[in-house]
């Protein structure tokens, strides 16, 4: 599917979604509550078949968080970037997509460990890199660590 | 960290493998639940070499951050540098001169060969054969010497920079690589005689660590791991960069889905890399090796993603720029991280010894996983 066709298809599935076409791939901005049903459709619909989740990351925009999912369909050879906005900065939560793409398991653990985003229904949310008693989430913009951080 | 090492309520034995175990190739820590000798569960605990490179990069300029990335997948450091340079070039629309591109591809393929050679030697040790290690390091040493002469370093080269490469190749480079090709061609068959055809080795590899193509894709595996499960995924073919579209090479696909298939993919890739080097070595175009770039690089506001094929799989660099001198957020999609996440699936129900063999064919580099 081309960018335009994808856009039309996604608007049908989720009328509230907004798009950004400036980059290499089509970007779709959604709300966190729409993510799990949309992810199921993206993976399973015959004309979408996004079977490869190759990058999952979280971005701290100071007022809110964004979860960014890079998707590719190996069968139909098209790409999509999904950005879910997490407005609640105090208690950021989003549904886990571990059951749809199993690679999300580790990537979500990383986002939890370094950015502090809670994944609902994740099989075992734990600190992946840091110690269990580590305070704070290093990749957040407001994180200060006087001991371990070297100002460059 | 796990506290309940010992016996589980069901009577299973819970043990630690690593972080200081030779078969984990670095500081990888696995907590394994064993029923007799059968692996019931295998849970990786990471972070022993976590340096938070992504956070570090947020305070480094677009020329500086490339040096840090050599320290991730240190066996593919050229290719890591290439991935980062490509992202910066994409954002600033810098066109790399032909000479620069060809030198990059030559260096990347030499690195891939060096990496596969080290893996081959280490895999031998994992399954109980010590000799391959010496054979592999004998040839790898020659590549390291070539790298040292041109790049000034043997492991973390920092040679590929935005705009091209840092210096021109050494006058001896072409001759030395030719000597290496002659040497390697006389040795590659020896590898097959020594290891590939060995019946004990084959029995340790065949049918071990099975993962179907669909599962491997779901776990986000890339590189030789996914190609051994019959899925095409070579970035050099899917989205060619730096002139890979102009060279002839085959994407190796195996359908065995087991450790032996992964072994065969890498052994065949060695020959493909050699063929790429042969095609380019006498055809390095004259001209500039680096495009003219500003001393201080400033990326426009936006998001940039580029992918390269390292020896381990797909390496992605995702830069979010706010128009400043440093990235706002940077994410490295490392191939080893996703490949490791499939280990639990591959080894469930197998014997503890097979876990070591499976881990060997995943070709894990821990700094690449921990970042």
Ordered list of secondary-structure elements with their pairings:
The complex is a heterodimer of chains A (152) and B (371).
Chain A: H1 3-13, E1 18-20, E2 27-31, H2 35-44, E3 52-60, E4 65-72, E5 79-86, E6 93-95, H3 104-115, E7 118-120
Parallel strand pairs in A: 2-5, 6-7
Antiparallel strand pairs in A: 1-2, 3-4, 4-5
Chain B: E1 6-7, E2 13-17, E3 29-35, E4 38-45, H1 53-57, H2 65-69, H3 77-92, H4 98-126, H5 131-151, E5 160-161, E6 164-165, H6 173-196, H7 199-205, H8 213-218, H9 224-227, H10 235-238, H11 259-281, E7 302-309, E8 314-321, E9 329-333, H12 335-341, H13 343-347, H14 352-362, H15 366-370
What does this structure look like?
The complex is a heterodimer of chains A (152) and B (371). Chain A is an alpha/beta fold and 152 residues long. Chain A has a single domain, classed as NADH:ubiquinone oxidoreductase Nqo5 subunit (Beta Polymerase, domain 2). Chain A has helices spanning 3-13, 35-44, 104-115, and strands spanning 18-20, 27-31, 52-60, 65-72, 79-86, 93-95, 118-120. Chain A starts with a helix and ends in a 32-residue tail after the last strand. Chain B has helices spanning 53-57, 65-69, 77-92, 98-126, 131-151, 173-196, 199-205, 213-218, 224-227, 235-238, 259-281, 335-341, 343-347, 352-362, 366-370; strands spanning 6-7, 13-17, 29-35, 38-45, 160-161, 164-165, 302-309, 314-321, 329-333. In chain B, a hairpin with a 2-residue loop joins strand 5 (160-161) and strand 6 (164-165). In chain B, helix 4 (98-126) runs antiparallel to helix 14 (352-362) and helix 11 (259-281) packs parallel to helix 14. The two termini of chain B are 19 Å apart. The mean pLDDT of chain B is 88. The A-B interface holds A 22-25, 27, 51-55, 57, 59-60, 68, 70, 74, 101-103, 105-107, 110, 114, 127-132, 138-139, 149, 151-152 and B 1, 45-47, 50, 52, 54-56, 59-60, 214-215, 217-220, 222, 231-233, 302-305, 314, 316, 318, 320, 329, 331, 333, 337-338, 340-341, 345, 370.
């Amino acid at each position: 599917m081309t960018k335009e066709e994808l856009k039309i298809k996604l608007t049908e599935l989720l009328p509230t979604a907004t798009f950004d076409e400036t980059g290499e791939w089509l970007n779709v901005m959604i709300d966190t509550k729409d993510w799990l049903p949309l992810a199921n459709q993206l993976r399973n619909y015959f004309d979408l078949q996004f079977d490869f989740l190759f990058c999952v990351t979280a971005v701290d925009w100071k007022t809110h968080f964004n979860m960014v999912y890079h998707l590719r369909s190996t069968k139909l050879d098209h790409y999509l970037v999904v950005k879910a906005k997490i407005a609640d900065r105090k208690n950021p939560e989003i549904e886990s997509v571990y059951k749809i793409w199993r690679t999300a398991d580790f990537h979500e653990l990383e986002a939890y460990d370094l950015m502090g985003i809670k994944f609902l229904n994740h099989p075992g949310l734990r600190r992946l890199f840091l110690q269990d008693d580590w305070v704070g989430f290093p990749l957040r913009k407001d994180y200060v660590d006087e001991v371990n951080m070297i100002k460059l | 960290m796990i506290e309940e090492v010992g016996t589980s309520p069901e009577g299973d034995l819970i043990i630690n493998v690593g972080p200081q175990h030779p078969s984990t190739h670095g500081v990888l820590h696995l907590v394994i639940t064993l029923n007799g000798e059968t692996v019931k569960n295998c849970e990786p605990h990471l972070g022993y070499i976590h340096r938070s490179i992504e956070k570090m990069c947020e305070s480094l300029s677009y020329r500086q951050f490339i040096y840090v990335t050599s320290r991730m997948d240190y066996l593919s450091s050229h290719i890591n540098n290439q991935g980062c340079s490509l992202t910066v070039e994409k954002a600033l629309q810098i066109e790399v001169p032909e000479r620069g591109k060809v030198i990059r591809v030559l260096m990347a393929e030499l690195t891939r060969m060096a990496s596969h050679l080290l893996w081959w030697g280490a895999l031998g040790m994992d399954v109980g054969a010590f000799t391959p290690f010496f054979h592999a390091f004998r040839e790898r040493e020659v590549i390291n010497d070539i790298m040292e002469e041109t790049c000034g370093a043997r492991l973390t080269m920092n040679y590929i920079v935005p705009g091209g490469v840092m210096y021109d190749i050494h006058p001896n480079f072409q001759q030395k690589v030719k000597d290496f090709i002659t040497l390697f061609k006389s040795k590659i068959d020896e590898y097959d005689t020594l290891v590939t055809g060995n019946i004990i080795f084959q029995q340790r590899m065949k049918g071990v660590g099975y993962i179907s193509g669909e599962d491997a894709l779901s776990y986000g595996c890339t590189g030789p791991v996914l190609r051994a499960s019959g899925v095409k995924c070579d970035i050099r073919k899917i989205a060619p960069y730096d002139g890979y579209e102009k060279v002839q090479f085959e994407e190796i696909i195996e359908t065995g889905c087991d450790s032996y298939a992964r072994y065969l993919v890498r052994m065949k890739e060695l020959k493909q890399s050699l063929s790429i080097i042969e095609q380019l070595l006498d055809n390095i175009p004259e001209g500039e090796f680096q495009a003219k770039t500003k001393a201080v690089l400033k990326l426009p506001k936006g998001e940039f993603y580029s992918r390269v094929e390292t020896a381990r799989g797909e390496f992605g660099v995702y830069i979010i720029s706010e128009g400043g001198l440093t990235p706002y957020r940077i994410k490295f999609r490392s191939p080893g991280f996703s490949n490791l996440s499939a280990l639990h699936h591959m080894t469930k129900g197998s014997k503890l010894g097979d876990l070591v063999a499976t881990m060997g064919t995943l070709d894990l580099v821990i700094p690449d996983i921990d970042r």
